[in-house]
Amino acid sequence: MAGAQARQRGGYADEVSVAAEGGVRFEVDGEIATITLDRPEKRNAQTFATWSALARIGESLPEQVRVVVVKGEGPSFSAGIDLRMFTSEGVPGQGSFSSAAKSDDATFEQRIRQAQAGFLWLRRPEIVSIAAVQGHAIGAGFQLALSCDLRIVADDVSFCMKEPALGLVPDLTGTKPLVELVGLAKAIDICLTARTVHADEAMRIGLAEQVVAGGDLHQAVRDKVAQLLAVNRDAAVATKRLLQGAQGRTLEEQSVVEGLEQAARIKAIFG
Ligand code: ACO
């Protein structure tokens, strides 16, 4: 039904096939969209095609979707960028870092912005995004989990920001949410040592909202989705907008915005 509505508006069928090209599965069931990284035999390594697929999904997400679940098939959520990018051959049809290094600054910057677009939309106020993370979440995999609003993790999870160990920086939108979640000192510790963060620590420092046994991960996500969908949609969108803006405002400013949002809610309900 939801898929049929989206198809009528155009785009959804295209997104499903674009997603498949990027090693991603995309399904919509009513108010719930599920994105599955689907190259388990390569531990869901990500390529430019993966990020383009994510961006296209974000651009054409059916309007009725309220919750987006991001998960990975197989033992690992994602082992990060496809290591073929570091070879001179690169990923067929997508180049390599050595070819990217030869492009001019504007072209290179544009390519990074395109990749980041696949991650940024997961923070929109209109949706709540949940990363269901088991096994490895390395580099781009860690950043994809960080791009979601919530992380529900299996007890075998291992987060690792490996980029600095490879001479790179994390540039797929992960640094800001990491600092916001764990604080600057812990973020420096995690990134500049490229060490692994396991489930207990992830829970303790605020990287994960919930840790469950591996076999319970998908049920735990389903339960969270049901809780989120039980709340009034417009109130949820307005509240997420409020919460997202809170860190950038003073208490006084935030109070004013709370009042404005509430006035709009009261008018919508009782006006
Ligand atoms: N890119 C491409 N292929 C990968 C990647 C990757 N990032 N990670 C795993 N694979 C492939 C392996 O080459 C192997 O392929 P093969 O069966 O054809 O040989 C297959 O996936 C399974 O990998 P294994 O190493 O055998 O699986 P294992 O469970 O023992 O280890 C682990 C998993 C720890 C994730 C390991 O594969 C690994 O360290 N991968 C590289 C992680 C990495 O450095 N990512 C880049 C981070 S930086 C960034 O994302 C910007």
From TrEMBL:
The cross-references to CDD domains, in alphabetical order and at most eight, read: crotonase-like (cd06558)
**PROSITE patterns in alphabetical order:** ENOYL_COA_HYDRATASE
Q: InterPro entries annotated for this entry?
A: ClpP/crotonase-like_dom_sf, Ech1-like, Enoyl-CoA_hyd/isom_CS, Enoyl-CoA_hydra/iso
What the entry lists under Gene3D superfamilies is as follows: 2-enoyl-CoA Hydratase, Chain A, domain 1 (3.90.226.10)
In terms of superkingdom, the source organism counts as Bacteria
Q: Which family does it belong to?
A: Belongs to the enoyl-CoA hydratase/isomerase family.
Report the protein name in the record. Answer: Enoyl-CoA hydratase/isomerase family protein
Organism expressing this protein natively: Nonomuraea helvata
